Amino acid sequence: MSWKEYAIFLLESIGIYNSDLMLHYYRKIKKFAYWYKKRDNIDICDIPDEADSKLENQKKVISWRRIARAIEKNDFYMKRLCFAQTKTDDEELRKLIHKWDNLLTEDTVSDDKDLIKFIEEEVNKDDNKTDE
């Protein structure tokens, strides 16, 4: 299986259980590819499966391996693809947390400290509302 096929497989697998999350990742990947199209004139069909691993680790090149690894790691903010945590992402995550209730907890997310902190804050908000 190529890295491109693997990335698509991961997205489709997520979509079976949570289409909202799949669409979130899809939008991020689409922006990522658009940025490289604009900057380096690399069309989505020309994205290499792999690139020099040093350059990938330094986040200097696009590859399907980088995309697949970001999905694998449940990188909600897609920091591995050079995105930052945004208010829009936080609002989308807030909706997902409430929609999927106990499925998104600090135990089920990646090792992203910002994501864990956000989820803990949301859970504490909900606990405080319940106590009132």
Q: Residue share in helices?
A: 55-70%
Average pLDDT: 86
Low-confidence stretches: none
Number of strands: 0
Largest sheet: none
Give a written overview of the molecule.
Helix 1 (3-17) packs antiparallel against helix 2 (19-40) and helix 1 (3-17) packs parallel to helix 4. 64% of the residues lie in helices and 0% in strands. The chain is mainly alpha-helical and 132 residues long. It has helices spanning 3-17, 19-40, 53-57, 64-72, 87-100, 113-131. The mean pLDDT is 86. The chain contains six helices and no strands. The longest helix is centred in the N-terminal third of the chain and has 22 residues, at 19-40. The protein has one domain (3-131).
Structure at a glance:
The chain is an all-alpha fold.
Structural key phrases:
132 residues; mainly alpha; 6 helices
Task: Write the SSE topology.
Layout: H1 3-17, H2 19-40, H3 53-57, H4 64-72, H5 87-100, H6 113-131
Helix pairs in contact: 1-2, 1-4
